Amino acid sequence: MLPTALPSFSRKKMSTVDTAWLRMDSEGNQMMIVGVAMLGAPISKDGLKEALTTRFLAFSRFRSRVVTDLGGAWWQEQAVDLDEHVVHTALALPADGGSNKAALQLLVGRLSQQPLARHLPLWQMHLVDRVVGADGKVGQALIVRIHHCIADGVALVGVFMSMFGAHPDAQPHALPAAAVAAAERNPWQQILQPITAASVKAIELSSALWLKSFAMWADLPHLGERLGQLGQAAAQLTQDAVKLTAMASDSPTRLKGKPNGRKHVAWSEPLPLAEVKAVGQAYGCSINDVLMASVAGALRAYLRAKGDAVAPDCALRVMVPVNLRKESGLQKLGNAFGLVPLVLPVGIEDPVARLREVRRRMDQLKGGYTALVAMSVLGVLGATPKQLQSEIQNYFARKATAVMSNVPGPQTPLYLAGSRLEQVMFWVPQSGDIGVGVSILSYNGGVQFGIVTDDALARDPERIIERFAPEFEKLLLLALMDQA
């Protein structure tokens, strides 16, 4: 037993944005960020607990349970017993001597649907022994589950990576008190700094103003018109708000529907990040453009393999989290991001034409206030009755097929208790009736795709994952042929 005793327990009010995520749990979707870290050599449970004590527990949110009352939601600190948060388990070794990745994916899927204990701080880790990779080597996996109300994916990946060191003999050390204090400040104090004060005043994005105008949410078809009344100087904001709230539904496919809460998870082997960069340079596109086009191609190939007709105008909308934090070397907890809708041109057969169309659509989204509008909406929803939040949340969810995240990780190898971090993957949760989540994460010169699907929509996410690499390789081959 390794409890962390605190001399006094503080109680802090939860922001409305974080409250919105707290209340999004449903039977179909748990609002957890789920991660898997593959370790080259086993570490002990005590070694993991030491890293958690110095890094995770430095942040009060990992020491606090959530309590609610008529005044809202609160972070209530308490003594933490890490044995209640760290589970040590093992997989069965395959009889044929092959990989047991499928068994690990099954475990991750099962944990993705299990709620976290509400009487404890909302996080848990499973240290899994006897994980056999495709190369036959026996390693270890660390499965991480953290509720989204604690922080968003960018913040949590940063905090998680901070447990690791750049050398095998690196020891975890406590974060400076000033760094912890800065990380726990309200993220709203940071996210608007990149925008000029005059713009903020013109845009009038305060929660109070949104709440005073909240009656407009009762009439969603006329929401854009009402937003236009919030300030003539906010023309761009109004335009983006209209686009966000007046989105047409994307193409109906087998990947849209009512989730039942049973999850299936799969992830790819890493692709060389240098090759992704080379393809982007060859076509004048960003790395994100190339990756998103590969996702669109994989989804198209999967649907066709299922025998579904994919019309040339078939388009699947994915909600992409956009980080709104100011650049900083400090990890900041809380949720400071907005969701931007990207429509993937799944119907385009030609890989290069598909890539160029993705680039065009990505360019259209840049420079606007869509992400800021989306985050402001979350802030408002967290201050409204839960039933109304659910209705508005489901309205937006019906317009999309998936949530997609792209998180950059360190590009040098990391170590924990002497064990090298070989691979890492995180998934963000899906809200409402969205039943597909796609994640892209780069680490140590590689980039990996991961996917989580709901049982009601797709029980074989590995059939989607196995198509990402071939779709990228098509672009790589065509780029090489163009340069020949």
Description:
The protein has 2 domains: 3-186, Chloramphenicol Acetyltransferase, CATH 3.30.559.10; 244-411 and 425-483, Nonribosomal peptide synthetase, condensation domain (Chloramphenicol Acetyltransferase), CATH 3.30.559.30. Strands 10, 11, 12, 13, 14, 17 and 18 form a 7-stranded mixed sheet that branches. A 6-stranded mixed sheet has the order 7-8-9-3-16-15, with helices on both faces. α3 (101-112) links the parallel β7 and β8. It has helices at 16-22, 45-54, 101-112, 153-161, 177-183, 188-191, 197-203, 207-212, 223-227, 235-245, 273-283, 287-305, 351-365, 370-381, 386-397, 461-465, 468-483, and strands spanning 3-4, 11-13, 32-39, 64-69, 72-77, 80-81, 86-90, 123-132, 138-147, 263-267, 271-272, 316-323, 337-344, 402-408, 415-416, 419-427, 436-443, 446-454. α11 crosses α12, α11 (273-283) crosses α17 (468-483) and α12 crosses α13. It is globular and about 65 Å long. Residues 182-221 and 226-234 have low confidence and may be disordered. Helix content is 35%, strand content 23%. The chain is an alpha+beta fold and 484 residues long.
